[in-house]
């Protein structure tokens, strides 16, 4: 290394250390002040041990059955060769703990409600929510029913063994990252329950929705008819479902006998049961109509009950809004597509996938390859879990997108002040079960917590009315066993068979294999209720409980489609003819624009598609909504007298190609116009009805409403310009062109004040950025904000506002060229190490930002290595 290069590396490490020390000492970000670190033998200085280049050496791990080799390439990607799956998972656990120990412990703490023990009082609300939700209870119940000799049982035990071997090394050496060394709180040994609780946390992030609470607020303010007109069950636009039928109606599968791990056992109350309901509140003899599908408290009048419902919904939504970004499901997630036959060139089949998640440094993902007898797999592993979640093996590649179906049901429990601790269900009063916790708080007093449980699940709120939640993530799921089986699957039959055990979260699995097969299979729990409208909170008296789930054979799916292409981008996966309920337009289904664009490119090909074409499409920033809406705006402005700046803004739109690039002024003008168009049309209704949210900056976060309103406005603008929504309450008659002209004028005024009076200089990059925050929320350890292409409607998605930290967390393209032969590539933002002093902290950053993919190799492909570890049984 040249002297100047070495000096810069030393300086960079010193600056990173100083920043981290200052952060910990002063209490910036989510962590409280941890005091000064004056001892050079402790704290951040010891973190430098992880920053040193990996070297070839022999290491001793307890519990190995034979030697294991780990070869690292220059980017820190390991290839593990083991004599058994278990030894491979032990090595995987050791690697995760070696390079991501802070991430491991923080994810475990968040899932199990122990974050405040490390970070202080600010985390008590998150801990309270997680303990109420019951991720730890679910993990314990799942481990209790997992056979130690099953593939999942052996994998979890072996993985824990590897994590603990690394933790023990750190204890011996005192080699802890600063967050632990300075707080004086260190990670405990890892257990299979810890892995399962983190799995539950990630399930929560992808499937724990709040749309029934949003519907309750909107129904109370807008009225039920307008609420369902504007936020309907079926979308008003063509979302290009991947499964167009014909469909099979096969009845329902029962939920597992083990039941909801967080629900009370339905036993009668004591003292003896009085089977009659309170005299002032009758139990309904039949399911209520749509207008009365939310239950009221038994002693309340109708207006009081409505107020109680709104109070309860607002209270819970307010709590959810204050959770960390990874707390619950907010945005639609991910793209995936595949092609085969005459649609591809130079390959039998090609697959592309880019799951969208909250972006952080380090990433959710840790890239690696695993090899053992019967297993050859490579791709993205999830820190805290054994196996490869997304990737390819010797014959098959797969990726996933979120189905976005409704997986969370809210129940309004019937209670009585005269019977505290009880609720009325199936004709009898039952006693709520209780679980007691103590939340340790760093720098504060422990916080006691009691969680009430009903047959539906944990009680999340008792303000206004008692509301419990039934979430599919709390039911037994063999998801890890499915992942391990997929890792070994030899083709589409084995792949689809493995998915039969997957239950939560509900995902669309897209695959392609070396025989040229492609397809999409939805997997997971799709709950169906006995009666009522599950998009609203339901009465908890028993008549509206979950009746079962959609059978696996009837779930959305397509295999080797006739058109030789298939795509899933969180659009509604089925048509309106599908015989089961899968959610509404406000259950966070994407508005369909990404799916439409992907199909447009795949089906509009002038030549067969290649792997390079697939990689290019992942970076596509054409906005389909803009392509449909801008012509209508230009028509609305014809003949209108415009001032100089307005005319120049219109000229920019006229010459714009609908691509959301950083240099495109048309992108900025269109985006600002569309946001103002939403406001012009809907804000008067919001104000008149006193809706407790606004369209884009909610006082209470019901973000999924935005997708519905986008669809509404597009459909009305193009096909129903006289829709009554364009006439504001108490205002003069209106229509789409009038509202568009008002919004355009407002947008130009706003942009002139913000960016100057020359629209040609209003490039998208001046207002739109991407950011990848650090895990510790320290700006110097993250990346950005950086001017960026894309928006929430483009294939290269950037969700979450004008500064997006949500998007493609892993990009992958696999082209199968023959039996077991593939051109596989992938990238994710950041790097393999969580240590900002490590050269592997930002390794992949430049490639990810620029849309470049790196080779994704299996152990059999061979790759140059910079160091090799030999792992042996501890003597």
Could you explain the architecture of this structure?
This protein is of the alpha+beta class and 875 residues long. It has a domain at 624-658 and 661-767: Penicillin amidase (Acylase) alpha subunit, N-terminal domain. Helix content is 33%, strand content 18%. It has 22 helices and 32 strands. The strands form eight sheets. The protein has an eleven-stranded mixed beta sheet with strand order 1-32-2-3-7-8-9-10-18-19-23, with helices on one face. A six-stranded antiparallel beta sheet has the order 24-4-5-29-30-31, with helices on one face. Strand 14 and strand 15 (447-453) form a beta hairpin. The longest helix has 28 residues, at 85-112. Mean pLDDT is 86; it is low at 1-46, 269-304 and 694-703.
Helix and strand layout, with pairings?
Blueprint (H helix, E strand, L loop, with lengths): L2 H24 L21 H4 L5 E5 L6 E5 L5 E4 L3 H28 L3 H4 L4 H10 L1 H10 L6 H23 L4 H6 L8 H16 L3 H12 L1 H7 L71 H20 L13 E6 L8 E6 L1 E3 L6 E8 L2 E8 L7 E4 L2 E7 L5 E6 L8 E4 L2 E4 L1 E7 L7 E7 L5 E3 L4 E6 L7 H10 L3 H8 L7 E7 L4 E6 L3 E3 L8 E2 L6 E4 L7 E3 L5 E4 L24 H11 L7 H8 L5 H14 L6 H11 L10 H25 L15 H15 L16 H20 L13 E4 L10 E5 L15 E2 L1 E3 L2 E8 L2 E7 L17 H5 L4 E2 L11 E7 L2
Parallel strand pairs: 1-32, 3-7, 11-21, 25-27
Antiparallel strand pairs: 2-3, 2-32, 4-5, 4-24, 5-29, 6-28, 7-8, 8-9, 9-10, 10-18, 11-17, 12-13, 14-15, 16-17, 18-19, 19-23, 20-22, 25-26, 29-30, 30-31
């Amino acid at each position: 290394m040249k002297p100047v290069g070495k000096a810069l590396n030393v300086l960079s490490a010193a600056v990173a250390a100083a920043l981290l020390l200052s952060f910990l000492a002063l209490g910036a970000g989510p962590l409280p002040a941890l005091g000064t670190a004056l001892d050079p033998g402790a704290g951040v200085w010891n973190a430098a041990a992880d920053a040193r280049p990996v070297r070839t050496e022999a290491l001793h791990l307890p519990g190995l059955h034979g030697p294991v080799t780990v070869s690292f390439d220059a980017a820190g990607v390991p290839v593990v060769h083991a004599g058994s799956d278990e030894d491979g998972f032990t090595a995987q656990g050791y690697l995760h703990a070696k390079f991501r120990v802070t991430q491991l412990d923080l994810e475990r703490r968040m899932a199990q409600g122990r974050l405040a023990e490390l970070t202080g009082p600010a985390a008590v609300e998150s801990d309270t929510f997680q303990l109420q939700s019951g991720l730890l209870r679910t993990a314990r119940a799942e481990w209790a029913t997992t056979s130690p000799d099953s593939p999942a049982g052996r994998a979890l035990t072996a993985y824990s063994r590897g994590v603990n071997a690394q933790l023990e090394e750190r204890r011996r050496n005192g080699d802890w990252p600063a967050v632990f060394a300075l707080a004086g709180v260190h990670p405990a040994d890892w257990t299979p329950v810890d892995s399962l609780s983190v799995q539950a946390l990630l399930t929560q992030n992808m499937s724990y929705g709040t749309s029934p609470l949003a519907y309750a607020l909107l129904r109370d303010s807008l009225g039920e008819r307008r609420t369902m007109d504007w936020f309907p069950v079926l979308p008003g636009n063509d979302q290009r479902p991947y499964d167009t039928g014909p469909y099979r109606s096969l009845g329902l599968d029962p939920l597992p006998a083990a039941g909801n791990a967080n629900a009370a056992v339905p036993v009668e109350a004591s003292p003896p049961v009085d089977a009659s309901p309170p005299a002032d509140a009758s139990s309904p003899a039949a399911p209520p109509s749509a207008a009365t599908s939310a239950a009221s408290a038994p002693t309340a009048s109708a207006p009081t009950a409505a107020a109680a419902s709104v109070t309860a919904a607002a209270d819970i939504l307010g709590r959810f809004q204050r959770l960390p970004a990874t707390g619950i499901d907010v945005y639609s997630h991910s793209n995936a597509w595949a092609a085969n036959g005459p649609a591809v060139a130079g390959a039998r089949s090609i697959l592309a996938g880019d799951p969208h998640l909250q972006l952080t440094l380090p990433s959710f993902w840790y890239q690696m390859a695993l090899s053992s007898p019967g297993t050859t797999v490579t791709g993205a592993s999830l820190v805290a879990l054994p196996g490869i979640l997304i990737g390819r093996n010797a014959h098959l590649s797969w990726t996933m997108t979120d189905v976005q179906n409704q997986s969370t049901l809210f129940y309004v429990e019937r209670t009585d002040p005269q019977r505290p601790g009880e609720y009325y269900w199936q004709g009898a009063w039952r006693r709520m079960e209780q679980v007691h916790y103590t939340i340790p708080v760093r720098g504060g007093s422990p916080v006691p917590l009691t969680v009430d449980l009903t047959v539906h699940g944990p009680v999340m709120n008792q303000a206004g009315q008692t509301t419990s939640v039934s979430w599919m993530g709390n039911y037994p799921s063999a998801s890890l066993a499915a992942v391990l089986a997929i890792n070994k699957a030899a083709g589409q039959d084995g792949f689809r068979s493995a998915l039969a055990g997957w239950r939560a979260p509900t995902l669309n699995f897209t695959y392609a294999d070396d025989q040229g097969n492609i397809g999409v299979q939805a997997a997971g729990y799709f709950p169906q209720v006995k009666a009522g409208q599950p998009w609203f909170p339901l009465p908890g008296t028993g008549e509206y409980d979950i009746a079962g789930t959609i059978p696996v054979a009837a779930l959305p799916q397509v295999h080797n489609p006739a058109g030789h292409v298939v795509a899933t981008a969180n659009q509604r996966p089925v048509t309106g003819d599908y015989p089961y309920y899968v959610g509404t337009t406000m259950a966070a289904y994407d508005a369909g624009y990404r799916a439409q664009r992907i199909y447009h490119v795949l089906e509009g090909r002038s030549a067969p598609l290649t792997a390079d074409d697939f990689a290019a499409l992942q970076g596509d920033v054409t906005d389909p909504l803009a392509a449909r809406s801008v012509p209508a705006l230009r028509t609305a402005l014809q003949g209108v007298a415009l001032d100089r700046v307005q005319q120049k803004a219109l000229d920019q739109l006229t010459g714009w190609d609908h691509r959301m690039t950083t240099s495109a002024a048309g992108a900025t003008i269109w985006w600002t116009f569309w946001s103002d168009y939403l406001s012009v049309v809907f804000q008067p209704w919001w104000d008149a009805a006193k809706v407790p949210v606004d369209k884009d900056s909610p006082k209470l976060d019901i973000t999924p409403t935005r997708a519905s309103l986008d669809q509404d406005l597009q459909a009305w603008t193009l096909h129903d310009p006289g829709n009554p929504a364009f006439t504001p309450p108490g205002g003069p008659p209106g229509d789409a062109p009038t509202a568009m002209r008002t919004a355009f004028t407002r947008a130009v005024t706003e942009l002139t004040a913000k960016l100057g009076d020359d629209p040609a200089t209003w490039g998208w990059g001046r207002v739109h950025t991407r950011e990848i925050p650090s895990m510790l929320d320290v700006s110097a350890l993250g990346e950005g904000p950086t001017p960026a292409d894309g928006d929430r409607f483009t294939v290269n998605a950037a969700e979450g506002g004008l500064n997006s930290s949500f998007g493609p967390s892993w990009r992958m393209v696999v082209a199968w060229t023959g039996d077991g032969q593939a051109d596989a590539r992938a990238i994710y933002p950041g790097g393999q190490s969580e240590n900002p002093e490590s050269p592997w902290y930002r390794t992949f950053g430049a490639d990810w930002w620029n849309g470049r993919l790196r080779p994704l190799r299996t152990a059999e492909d061979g790759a140059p290595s910079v160091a090799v570890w030999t792992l042996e049984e501890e003597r």
